[in-house]
Each structure stands twice: as structure tokens, then as C-alpha cells.
Write a structure and sequence with these properties.
This protein is an alpha+beta fold. It is built from 10 helices and 20 strands. The protein has a 6-stranded mixed β-sheet, sandwiched between helices. A 6-stranded antiparallel β-sheet has the order 7-6-19-16-9-10, with no helix packed on it. A hairpin with a 2-residue loop joins strand 12 (194-196) and strand 13. Helix 7 crosses helix 9 (155-164). It is globular, with a radius of gyration of 19 Å.
Length: 301
């Protein structure tokens, strides 16, 4: 086993250059063993192979979507995921205290930091690290083109949200394990507190408490946008700082259905559109994911 940390990268990813990671890696070439990947599936398979060979740390360079691909290969193993966050939002890295494009901090977490186990949830078998959205926010992600994302960066979400806010979205039903049904037009599930960048949406969420936090809004789209922004300005939604049309709940699993076609996203990536009545089964995996975190973080919150 090589002493250098294996680092999974997509050599064609523009974020490696835009973030300055390529230049940083040239200064730390003795630390990493770079392993090129050519697809999401290839990245997951190589992560699993490295874990099976006994690598204590398997690092990945990219945004939340790339990290999830690596995580799929490491869930349930003794290997920890090392993160070099060079995506647009880097929400999961921020949640862990690493931050966005803070490569020195990320390296410190891998070399001298600690390891934490975090929960992993799935939607119809597809895992996510940080959050999942059903409704308006997923439609926003669906409409954002790579060109718009390169041009505007994080602002692409705001511009597209204003456009989507004028559309009508179906009524969604969230069914809890006890049979309780909650209706809304926007559902955002959070494994952690952050929803976009440093913005908090789920005030009480914790990455390893065995529970998902949900914000369920039953309003027209323009009002949803305002409500989300208000919650983020208040460091997250609680039942005390939201309107009577917003439900804040915590649970381990649920089933989501809608009267019409429903877009959904995982970790900021559009995944698909559910047909009317088609269920989205949300559940927690029995295995956890080990991640490298800064020593100053303490327990994951």
C-alpha cells in the first residue's frame, strides 16, 4: 500500500482549474497519488476498490455530486473519505467545517484531523450526503445549464429561482411511518444544517443523529422563495420562526408522492421526475460513511 493518499479526480472537470486546485496539487505532489476517473460509475468503483485494498483514506476532488460518487464506494467500509472541495457550492465540506476551496484545511483534516461517521439517506435507493429537494428547488436545478453555472456560479440558482417561481407546482404528500400525512408544494430534507453555501435551512439538523430534518411548505411558488430566504437569514427554520403554512419536522423515513409530475434533486443535482402518484421512498442506510474532519470541529453537528 502506497503512503501517498489516493486522490480520485476527473481530469476533464473545469472546476479543477477554476478553483486553483490544479496549481495547489503541483505544490503537494508528494502527498497524493492521483487516480483519474472517466465517469461517475468509474469513480465509485475505484473508491470501493481502494477501500477493499485497505486504504485508510480515499480522497476525492470535486463538488457535492462528485463526493457522493466517492462516498457510494466507501459506505460501510473502514476507509474515510478525504475531501478536496472544488465545486460551486461545496455544501457538505462546509457542513464538516472544511469550507469551500480551503485546500490546506482539507489536507490538515486528512493528515492530522479526526474521523467522523455520518448517516446516509436514500431516495428510491439513490443516496445523498447533505440534502434532498422535491418541487420548486428541484425544478431550479433541472433548468440550470452548465454554461449558466460557469457564467454566474452560485448566482445561477437565484436567477433561475425567480423564473421558476412564476410556475405552478403539484401538491406533495409526505407520509410518515406512523401514517400521518403532511401536504405541501415544496419539501426540503436535510441531513445537515446547510442548504446552499453557508446558508442554514435546518436549524436542528445533525449529520449523525439518525434523523432527517424536513421543511414542508404549502404555499404558492413566489411565497416559497421568500419563506426559504427568510429561514436562511434566521440561521434555519424552526416552528417558531416560520409561517403557519410551513411545517418543520424530524423523522427517520417517509414516503413522498405528488398529484402531478414532481422534480427532485439530491445534493444539488437533478435526479429525475416522479410520475403522478409514483412514490419516493426515503430511508436511512444501516451503514454509515467515515469522513475526515478538522480536529477543531468536534462532534459533527
Amino acid at each position: 500500500m502506497n503512503d501517498r493518499i489516493p486522490l480520485l479526480v476527473n481530469p476533464n472537470a473545469g472546476s479543477l482549474f477554476r478553483s486553483g486546485l490544479n496549481a495547489w496539487l503541483e505544490l503537494h505532489e508528494q502527498v497524493f497519488r492521483i487516480i483519474h476517473t472517466d465517469s461517475a460509475r468509474d469513480l465509485t468503483q475505484k473508491a470501493r476498490s481502494l477501500a477493499e485494498s485497505g486504504e485508510p483514506i480515499v480522497a476525492a476532488a470535486g463538488g457535492d455530486g462528485t463526493l457522493m460518487c466517492a462516498a457510494q464506494g466507501l459506505i460501510g467500509t473502514d476507509s474515510a473519505l478525504g475531501i478536496l472541495p472544488c465545486g460551486t457550492m461545496n455544501v457538505f465540506a462546509r457542513e464538516l467545517g472544511i469550507g469551500s476551496r480551503r485546500f490546506d484545511c482539507a489536507l490538515q483534516a486528512m493528515q492530522n484531523g479526526g474521523k467522523q461517521a455520518v448517516d446516509i439517506y436514500t431516495v428510491n435507493g439513490k443516496p445523498f450526503l447533505q440534502m434532498a429537494g422535491f418541487g420548486m428547488d428541484a425544478s431550479v436545478v433541472k433548468m440550470i445549464t452548465p454554461k449558466l453555472k460557469r457564467w454566474l456560479g452560485a448566482a445561477a440558482h437565484i436567477v433561475t429561482a425567480l423564473r421558476v417561481a412564476m410556475e405552478k407546482h403539484p401538491v406533495i404528500t409526505v407520509t410518515l411511518p406512523n401514517g400521518e400525512e403532511i401536504v405541501g408544494t415544496q419539501v426540503i430534507l436535510g441531513n445537515g444544517k446547510r442548504y446552499g453555501g453557508e446558508a442554514h435551512l435546518h436549524a436542528e439538523a445533525c449529520l449523525n443523529d439518525g434523523l432527517l430534518d424536513a421543511v414542508i411548505m404549502h404555499q404558492e411558488c413566489p411565497v416559497i422563495l421568500f419563506e426559504v430566504l427568510t429561514c436562511m437569514l434566521q440561521k434555519g427554520a424552526t416552528q417558531r420562526n416560520t409561517s403557519v403554512f410551513t411545517n418543520v419536522r424530524r423523522f427517520e423515513s417517509c414516503v413522498i408522492t405528488a398529484e402531478g409530475k414532481l422534480d427532485y434533486q439530491l445534493d444539488g443535482d437533478y435526479v429525475g421526475t416522479l410520475e403522478p402518484g409514483e412514490p419516493a421512498v426515503v430511508a436511512r442506510l444501516p451503514e454509515q460513511l467515515n469522513v475526515c474532519v478538522p480536529l477543531t470541529l468536534g462532534p459533527v453537528e
